[in-house]
Specification:
The complex is a heterodimer of chains A (317) and B (321).
Chain A (H helix, E strand, L loop, with lengths): L1 H13 L6 H26 L8 H18 L3 H25 L5 H19 L10 E2 L14 H24 L1 H11 L1 H6 L4 H27 L1 E2 L1 H4 L2 H14 L6 H22 L6 H15 L4 H11 L5
Helix pairs in contact in A: 2-6, 2-9, 2-11, 2-12, 3-4, 3-5, 3-9, 4-5, 4-9, 6-7, 6-9, 7-9, 11-12, 12-13
Chain B lengths: L1 H21 L7 H16 L6 H21 L8 E10 L2 E11 L4 E5 L6 H9 L6 E6 L2 E2 L5 H7 L1 E3 L12 H9 L6 H15 L14 H14 L4 E5 L7 H16 L3 E5 L3 H7 L2 E6 L2 E6 L1 H5 L2 H8 L10
Classes of the chains: A mainly alpha (317), B alpha/beta (321).
Chain lengths: 317, 321
Amino acid sequence: MRWVAAAALIVLLLLPAVLNSYAVTVFIFIFFYAFLGQAWNIVGGYAGQLSAGHAAFVGIGAYASALLSVQAGLTPWIGMLVGGVLSAALGTVVGYLGFRFGLRGFYFVLLTVAFAEVCRIVALNTDAVGGALGYYITFTGNPRQFQFQDNRAYYYIALGLMLAATAVVAAIERRRFGAYLIAIREDESACEALGVDTFRYKMLAMVVSSFLTGVGGTFYAFYLFSLQPNAVFGIPLSVEIVIRPIVGGAGTVLGPILGSFILSPLAEASRVYFGQGGWSGAHLIAYGLLLIAVVLFLPQGAYPALRRLWAKAAPLR
Amino acid sequence: MRLREEAQNMRLREEATTQRDRHSGSRRRPDERLREEATTQRERHSGSRRRPDERLREEATTQRDRHRSSALRMTPPARLLEVSGISKRFGGVQAVRDLSFDMARGEVLGLIGPNGAGKTTVFHLLSGFLPPDAGTIQFDGRPIVGLKPHAICRLGLARTFQIVRPFPHLSVLDNVRVGALARRPQMADARAKARAVIDQVGLGPKAGHAAAGLTLAERKRLELARALATEPILLLLDEVMAGLNPTEIEAIVSLIRSINEAGVSILLIEHNMRAVMTLSHRIAVLNFGEKLAEGEPASVANHPRVIEAYLGEEYVHPSAG
């Protein structure tokens, strides 16, 4: 498997030389959502705490770095860390409320959705951050302000983010932290009886996950240059974040990447196809059907299924 | 009637104590002493088959004990477990009522009684899954009421669940590794320990199998292995023999015995009377949340109230007659 990954990486590094700008943009979204999905994967995939409100962390990171850059002139290269820390702070609050009071399963889901919605409504009604009109960043193209003329720069940054998040997840999986998270997902009470401080490890997963997601928010802000509360805090973004790991394989290192490579092109293709006929947004129908298919036939996601196929094909190789 | 029972209880406990003192040199029963000699012979012949790190840890443990007894104690070391007056009520049901008992290091204490007597509730109270309404619990000289289960496990008190709870999607090895990680934060180290424990309980061939695919007997062993991997001082076993056939029971009885001989104290809930009587140094009997009797297996088995409440007239202890 490893040489496959290495070859794929080399291909990805060389692609911008041969792709047109539109294709580069598609890849940027593949990488970016894979990054967000990978961040979610830590708490949602490995620890099994399904958060459907991760957009809250994207939004906080985005607004924080945008405001700091525009109002205070702070370079987003540092602003992204501030955004990450603020998102981690919110993540701590959400995690504490959920885990301290034993919210499991879909009660935790509801809690995360509630927080994202609160953020959205606060942003909508706070004129200082643009309110319903949104917050805009003037394009300067200055790399020191995390802005680039060339699309390809964003390509490599997004690719770098995706690889960094993947490295974090791989490191977690290799260590006791990862083994504990997986066990917590399987059976929390049994874990407690085996000396695992489940509260502590769930909190840690939540903090790391929300920090990384917050950092992603900066990329979002300085790639799109406009922040709309409904878009950046909304449930559709949370769904985009969650669906990639679930389709690709939650709780695996390559799952979110695979899921993103499946879903982003699918979204683009159906957006183009349906958009032409005036059916924009119909890509969500495609998402829904795909999700149903995954739940019915590949509940563990595409990557574990591929791995099984690969293993079964072993005698033939 | 009641006075006579209390006197009987006191006499039983006194007998138990005196018997224990008489055997104070080796606290084991004759057949066990023979096996101990056989074990030592075996060790002598095969060199010391224990891995270096186990020996090192043993040395570290003994050092720790020495330091503890000299530095912290004016009085002789406390009993391993001292339960004093614990109670637990669930709504209208008094599950455990003013229960007191204790355990010595290295001992196997059997906890028996009819279904609903409160035995598993006692386990929940000891392991921190439920807080007692009243009473204190001292483990290894430390009060543990109010500690969370994972903290109690780290202190050396591990437990199994009556309805086994394997991690279904993980392999046997990964299951046990979670337990081993409690003492060994390095994954490779924990994996090695897990391997060793799996071999010890006889699940070696199944190490790579998913836990969901095991038979009941194998799952019980897995549950036991996982708890054992946390390297406890005291192991709480909740009906590990339920649902097993006689061959499987015999196998698990000798496994438990070997675990105890390796130095782990055991508190055993069990309905299989032969197993309990064979394994236990002492037995405590619960009924309706209260302690009916406590003492050496023979005396408990012949205790009229125990017979009346639980054992039934047909049961005859091997030592009698």
